[in-house]
Design brief:
Layout lengths: L2 H13 L8 H30 L12 E13 L2 E11 L6 E2 L1 H6 L9 H13 L2 H12 L5 H25 L3 H9 L11 E12 L7 H6 L7 E11 L3 E3 L5 E3 L3 E5 L3 H14 L7 E6 L3 H10 L4 E4 L1 H16 L4 H16 L3 H14 L6 H17 L5 H6 L7 H14 L8 H15 L13
Parallel strand pairs: 4-9, 9-10
Antiparallel strand pairs: 1-2, 2-3, 4-5, 5-8, 6-7
Helix pairs in contact: 1-2, 4-5, 4-6, 5-6, 6-9, 6-17, 7-9, 11-12, 11-14, 12-13, 13-14
């Protein structure tokens, strides 16, 4: 039977039952339903053929298995519904494990029924919304009636696998040989000419179920239960990957992502590993851009020695506007007139930050009277500018075409939060870390590491 024969058969079978005014949506669904049984049978037969051809070897060590049971049946939920096949079962004398070699070869989990394609559907759909909501969409789009608990469990399992891959890279980043391995896997197509690698870092809050059900007890003891915790986040890209759309909107064509709830040490290793994958060792210049958080600059100094450090211009301007409000009143003309020259110095002078610092110190030392609150505010900003004065060369940055604001990481944090800060949503640290790893793997275009069929 040729492809034309199959198409003609489907045409006749489906066409006889469709009304003449059927729209294309109904036509597609009818053809899909009519061919479902045949596709399911083809999958079942091909899976059985693959299982029969699978050698009786341990998937872990490759050792020869001792037969324990032959032709044991298994059901698998595929894109076309449930199929059934048989495979052999044996014990590895080296590992001591009882294994099904065919299950491993086919990409099946020992205790989960979904096929690799259905595993992928569960993982992808759960990244956009909770499984309870997405299960209905999956049924509507694919015809698969997957229980939300199954979908969530499968997505969580894939998240743990993504977490293991991420932690493997973090472990590599701790040894010279591992660093070389990560550097060798740098994104293909790095430019031949010198390039600048940009690293931006920030954090946002996620809500977790810690001390769940103990709120009243803790409050009675005078303790406030914590619910919000930091997710440390980073993004890495080359300067030449920045551009604008036809409408003038800033865009980054390709970049790497990092997000973790495991703390600063985990962030340090993950950002370093991602930077190595993005060409850190090949870069002529490295720029670390962030707000004024000290932990960020400690990380930058530790992992990216020699990198240019730049504090986000918008945050610096906010500090000056806050001080202007403290000295002259919020929203007043006097505040605007006072802050204007300082804002200009920041962007027009080579050492604008240092000039602002000197101006504030002169104001502090002048004879004009200041209230206690104003003097405290002034001293606070003097401390801020003294800490970051060497990170404020915005004039040179603009001449070099480098970013002066951390908009890329602000956008990154916002994108993650769309999934992880839904109304009424609580996480556990185990759950959010797994889903963060899964989301990050997807964003970093390494999805095929979990689902090799997507490499094709």
């Amino acid at each position: 039977m040729t492809e034309t024969d199959v198409a003609e058969w489907l045409y006749e079978r489906v066409g006889s039952g469709l009304p003449a005014d059927a729209d294309m949506g109904r036509i597609e669904k009818a053809v899909e339903a009519a061919s479902l049984a045949f596709r399911r049978e083809a999958i079942e037969r091909l899976v059985q053929r693959g299982a029969d051809a699978c050698a009786a070897e341990c998937p872990g060590c490759g050792g020869r298995l001792r037969a324990h049971m032959r032709r044991r049946a298994r059901c698998v939920l595929t894109r076309c519904g449930l199929i059934r096949f048989r495979r052999d079962y044996g014990r590895c004398p080296v590992c001591g494990d009882y294994v099904y070699p065919a299950d491993a070869a086919l990409g099946l989990h020992g205790r989960a029924s979904p096929s690799p394609i259905v595993q992928e559907i569960c993982a992808l759909e759960s990244l956009s919304a909770p499984a309870a909501r997405k299960a209905r969409d999956v049924l509507r789009l694919t015809g698969l009636d997957i229980d939300p608990s199954v979908m969530h469990r499968e997505a969580r399992r894939q998240g743990e696998a993504a977490r293991a891959l991420r932690d493997r890279d973090a472990a590599l980043a701790q040894t010279p040989a591992g660093v070389a391995t990560l550097a060798a896997s740098a994104i293909p197509g790095l430019p031949d000419r010198p390039f600048t690698l940009v690293i931006e870092i920030d954090a946002w809050n996620i809500r977790e179920r810690d001390a769940w059900g103990q709120t009243a007890k803790l409050l009675a003891k005078g303790e406030k239960p914590e619910r919000w915790h930091w997710v440390f986040t980073g993004t890495v890209f080359r300067l030449d990957q920045r551009g604008t759309t036809a409408a003038g909107r800033p865009v980054i064509t390709e970049r790497g992502y990092v997000a973790t709830r495991k703390g600063l040490e985990a962030l340090r290793l993950q950002v370093y590993a991602e930077a190595l994958r993005r060409g850190l060792l090949q870069a002529a210049h490295v720029l670390v851009l962030a707000d004024g958080a000290i932990w960020i600059w400690d990380l930058a100094t530790d992992r990216f020695k020699g990198a240019t450090q730049r504090v986000d211009l918008h945050h610096v301007q906010e500090h000056l506007w806050t001080l202007a409000a403290d000295l002259h009143g919020k929203g007043t003309e006097a505040a605007s007139e006072w802050v204007a020259p300082y804002l200009a110095w920041l962007t027009r002078r080579k050492e604008g930050g240092l000039d602002v610092l000197h101006g504030l110190e002169s104001l502090r030392d002048a004879a004009q009277p200041l209230t206690t609150q104003q003097r405290a505010a002034l001293q606070r900003e003097i401390g801020y500018f003294n800490t970051h004065k060497d990170r404020m060369d915005y004039k040179s940055a603009k001449q070099l075409g480098q970013p002066v604001g951390s908009g890329a990481i602000e956008s990154t944090c916002s994108q993650y939060q769309r999934r992880f800060k839904l109304a009424g949503q609580f996480w556990s640290i185990q759950g959010d870390e797994a889903f963060l790893a899964l989301e990050t793997l997807h964003r970093n275009e390494r999805w095929h590491l979990l689902f090799p069929h997507d490499r094709d």
